[in-house]
Queue: 3 jobs
Job 1
Amino acid sequence: MIDKSKNLPAVLVVEDEPLIRMEAVDMIEDAGFKVYEAGSADVAIELIGKHDDIGILFTDIDMPGSMDGLKLAAYVKDRWPPVAIVIASGKVDFTVMKVPEGSTFFPKPYPTDKIIKALGDIAQKLA
């Protein structure tokens, strides 16, 4: 269970499918986190540069634009090392992906309880 009385890091949700993004945002907000949302890596990079309260990147892998979720995760880890990375995908085999060290992976459809627990664990480590 997440202690909502603590100052939780904001979560940046990056998902190109609007309905899936909306569900993810609702799930994470319901757990007590402030959430920013982006439909592409380009918008995500713009948001993370503007909001220093973002402590967790929650991204899909398959996205249109200049980079996919894996490249976005690597970019964020390189540019903003303290930001925790959570990656979700329904199409990619995690065992063959090159993800930033310390990243967490979840298959789609989202296992809500496991994602919320992981976000809570990350928030405790960042506190």
Job 2
Amino acid sequence: MDHLHGALRRAAFRNDVPGAQLAVWCSGEAAEFEVGEERHGSGRAVRRDSKVPIGSITKTFTATLLMVLVSDGDVGLDEPVVEYLPELRRALGPTADVLTARHLLSHTGGLHAEVVAPPAGGSAALATSVTDLVQAPGAGFSYSNAGYALIGRLIEVVTGMTWAEAVRAILVKPLGIDLAFVAGSEEASSSTASGHTVNRALSLVRPVEQDLTSVEAPAGGLAASAADLVELAKMHLAPTHGGIDPGLVDPDHLAEMRRPVPGAVPFGLADGWGLGLALFHGDGAGWLGHDGTADGTSCHLRLDPESGTAVALTANSATGSALWNDLLPELRAAGIDIAEDAPAVESGPQKPIPKDCTGTYVNGDIAYSVVVQDDELHLVVDDEPAARLAVRDGFVFSVTDLSSGTAGRPGRFLRDPRSGRIDRIQIGGRVAGRQRDVA
């Protein structure tokens, strides 16, 4: 696998990534590579233990931590969360009685995509900010940071610790790894890499700081090295295939995390979803993992329980996803055939614009407007023109970014099963409902 070091260096240079780490665990052996700088122009080299803000891969840590509590009998996956967070009943009414930890871990809880931080009271007041849902719990998949914020609060109530304290004491210390925290009062370590934005037209690479509140931390507040991510992945590999069993989670509960949740259809993100893990089938057996983007970073984790293989990439630039795509054929040449990240829209003739698709769709504070402009379908997000849409069979659409011309993750229009009218849109895994006309 030595050729991967050169491949990583070339891909980082080609995609204007200041620094990156690649870690591979295969056949019981580790291969680790680092290139570049922690912060552009600093001369501070990326090391094996450099921590990169991993964004939503934090959710896999939070989910695994909760499963430790499930294995210990402290939390029931299918018990109403309101049993632990009674304030949810005041916020959601009778719906609170059916919302479970399984729903929240699999993004089938119906919560808004983003966390609405309470004005006072911190995480203890979080549940009071959950005022409505995009769909009923269990009705389908809609990616939700708010759901993981609630899981973090649940962990705090059950353990009597802050979420950060519980992560350290219950999960990462037994795993023998040391993470950094990039939200709230937790100070990032001196080895935490900066995120970067890239203006390729002007050849500008600019460091950016992380902007995350402590309430959002369970959804995206960790920084880790690629080697740290592989250590977590080893828990989720079969011990007979190179996995490591630290004795934290019962094997049956680990298997539960890898099992696809019925109705969790993360269209455009993956082929299925378990508990804190996405499922990527590709053309063969399933890979699992998670992607994460923080402010100016892009990170990826993949694992195959059957072959005992895990791969992690951290990149301290928003262009890191392109680096990852460049590395996939290099990994394939090394015998590691990772499934593609997300289903592609079927090629074929573009369909006419559905007559009832235009309008505004909302998910919490996010507004997606679908408009016709110059005989093309366009997407406007929070009043900012974002993408051009091309409709294919089944009301699926491809997405082309207006500023860069690059293809984004596909989406789809969803119809009300009773009326047949388009009443929702799913994009980036998030479901948004059509905004009702105000009289």
Job 3
Amino acid sequence: MSKMSELSQVLSELKDCGQTLMNIADSLTELFSSTSADHETPAPPTEEPKPAYSFVEVRKKFAEMSRAGHTDALKDLLKKHGADKLSSIDPSQYAALLADAEAIQ
């Protein structure tokens, strides 16, 4: 084997060793960064958000209940929430309104 080809082979092996060392360093970095993340204080649990209802969903539920014979109770429920008609209800009150409507059935 000539000196040049021998030198080329040694350089190739040296590059492979360097790449292997880089891979090991990356693996160790990843390992230690994930380990330190595991020891961080977990965030306090947050309340589950209340489901947001649209006017269409509330109107659909009221229509079903009205067909089932609960029209008078639904009118009373609207009055309880300070409205004459469903479109007058504040959208932030839809969840409470539906919860009260479920109690009627």
